[in-house]
Amino acid sequence: MKIIRDSAFILCLLFLTLRLLVADDQTQVKTNGVFIVTIGERKAVNEMAIYPQGGIANRPLLMMAHGNGGSGPKEIEAWLDLAKQHNFTIVCPTFLSSVQSMHVPEDVPYFKDCVKWIEDNLQYDKNNVYMTGFSGGGFAVWHLATMRPDFFLKDCFSRAVIMQDNTTTRIYLDGPINPFI
């Protein structure tokens, strides 16, 4: 009887320990292999989607900024087949500035936390890191990627919405960013 009681106690402790570890974990893996991690302290969405979990050593890394109405977990779905076919790591943060440029101050610390998390947790070719964005995500690329020219080899946007006076005037741009111009 003592053996059963001791075994039950050990199993109970093991179960509680595992439960606490899972409760503290800020990550989840979806059935398609996409890894979702919560980054930073923002009051709004903080999710960053990554494929594959852990990255791919000595292969490129692409950070993709979604457009208005998107999110990192939604955006990564469009990139999975390409990432698998060409064997690169794709990272899709959720940027608030993709919705409205006034959110850039909230995105700056989040972006820094995302880059730090990538540097600390993913394997990739550190000389082969890119950032791109479509539509509102182009604004995030324009502002945020140029903050870290040491991290990104190239930055490019497509149909980027750049607010000229932050109200109504919009400039739509396509092409690479050269932060030294």
Arithmetic mean pLDDT: 74
Number of helices, counting only DSSP H or I runs of 4 residues or more:
5
CATH homologous superfamily identity: Alpha/Beta hydrolase fold, catalytic domain
CATH architecture: 3-Layer(aba) Sandwich
| Order of strands across the main sheet | 1-2-3-5-4-6-7-8
Regarding CATH, which class? Alpha Beta
Stated plainly, the CATH topology is called Rossmann fold
Order of helices and strands: HEEEEHHEHEHEE
| Alpha carbon gap, first and last residue | 78 Å
How many discrete domains? 1
Structural class: alpha/beta
What is the total tally of β strands? 8
Report the sheet with the most strands, covering strand number, pairing sense and barrel closure: 8 strands, mixed
Binned strand content: 25-35%
Short description:
The protein has about 180 residues and is an alpha/beta fold.
Describe this structure in words.
- This protein is an alpha/beta fold and 181 residues long.
- It has a single domain, classed as Rossmann fold (3-Layer(aba) Sandwich), CATH 3.40.50.
- Helix content is 34%, strand content 25%.
- It contains 5 helices and 8 strands, in the order αββββααβαβαββ.
- Helix 5 links the parallel strand 6 and strand 7 (154-163).
- The protein starts with a helix and ends with a strand.
